TrEMBL record:
Residues 149-247 form the HTH araC/xylS-type domain. GO terms for molecular function: DNA-binding transcription factor activity; sequence-specific DNA binding. SMART domains: HTH_ARAC (SM00342). It comes from Litoreibacter roseus. This is AraC family transcriptional regulator.
Amino acid sequence: MEPPAYCFHKTFAPSGPSAFQMERHYLLYALEGTLRLEAQGQRWTLPPARAALIQANEEVTITILSQLTSASVLFAPSFMSPPPQVLCVFDLSPLAHELIRECRDFGPDGGPLPVYAMTLFTTLAEVVLKLAQSPSKCVLPSPSSPALLRAVQLTEDQAHGAPTFTAIAKASNQSPRALARRFSSEMGMTWREVLRRIRIVRAVEMLAMTEASVTEIAHQVGYGSLSGFNAAFRDHMGLSPTEYRASFKR
């Protein structure tokens, strides 16, 4: 019989989008590698030093962008309160990181948990539930209509260059006025805000997955100047790109 909470490690090769669902609340932590997670019309990037808490019996979509080594913790629904959302992505605090490290000795086949392990898992559950109250800003809403989906896909395809709203509207066979309404009603954002978010999410992935310099990343995601990229990144993520990358190595 499996214990009420346990930890396991596994390495996964890159793979395309796939459905994921567990009977337990699932804390997913990437020691190495980067994931893309989707649920309830939103999409998150999960690089190292970030974690995801997934509700039991809820389906999410996972894309493994680079080889992944995970240290995940599974909690029986009776062991902890349910997470506040189907999928919560958040920065992992030093305390949570150390708790996960200590929990790694207690896997699914270890038999009944000793008192020490029960204390560890109980504390970890309380800590991650609190962290889940402050979700990551690295999220992009998903459009619901085919027309807006097409416009967003075109924007993603051209984000590294200099796309214009008028050109995107024309290429997706919509008037600028109709397309602007769709962005507002379906995503709660303007087209320019979506373009900026796409670029920042892409930069987060590159900071985690590559050794490219910040200047190279700025240009590859569509910024003409390093200062403009740094300002946009800090405004959205609360850290400079250099500080954000350093957080992966703590």
